[in-house]
Amino acid sequence: MTDGTADRTNGKTADDTAPTSADVDWDAQAATFDDEPDHGLRDPRVRDAWARRLSAWLPGRPGDVLDLGCGTGSLSLLAAEQGHHVTGVDRSVAMVGHAREKLAGRDAVFLVGDAAAPPVGEQRFDAVLVRHLLWVLPDPGRALRHWRDLLRPGGRLVLVEGVWGTLAPVGIPASRLTALVTPLADEVRLERLSDDALLWGKDVTDERYALVATT
Fold first, then answer.
1. Residue 212 has pLDDT above 60, yes or no
2. What is the pLDDT of residue 27?
3. How far is residue 165's CA from residue 207's CA, in Å, rounded to a whole number?
4. Please, where are the H alpha helices in the chain?
């Protein structure tokens, strides 16, 4: 796996050996990426579960949302449907292609680039949305500081992360991410997600959570 990708856990449960970031061709994976329930959100119940969460995490008024490691754009689409202008960034050309098709005609733009240092110039955002990406970055603290600087005053970081696998667990624990984010924000809210099976299309036992930080 390379940075700039999102939510690349391929549906592994705590009983599986979690994937690593190496030797994965995400352009090749793009065609089947949405087959996972929490990737494609094709099940209306899973989709509604994510839409409700996203509505609570993102600003109540329509604004500019930066979706980093946007993948095929499933969360971008939900944000756009809630009235936000979305800028998505992913390193995978194929993933970005799927996202552009998925949001054709929507108020959204998708860029190929490094999510740790997104190619957005001087543009600033009301929210930076990241799902299952931070754990693969070599320096998550540095990325978080950069993302914080992309926010307008009162903006928020919406970080969905977790820890996957039992034999060789990968991920970023909530305690570590909270420690990284707290110095950067005025308010940090942690929301546990492991017990909401609808979000994942199945029961899970590993650590999954969202951290919402307001600057």
1. yes
2. 86
3. 10
4. 26-33, 37-40, 44-57, 74-81, 93-102, 140-149, 174-181, 197-200
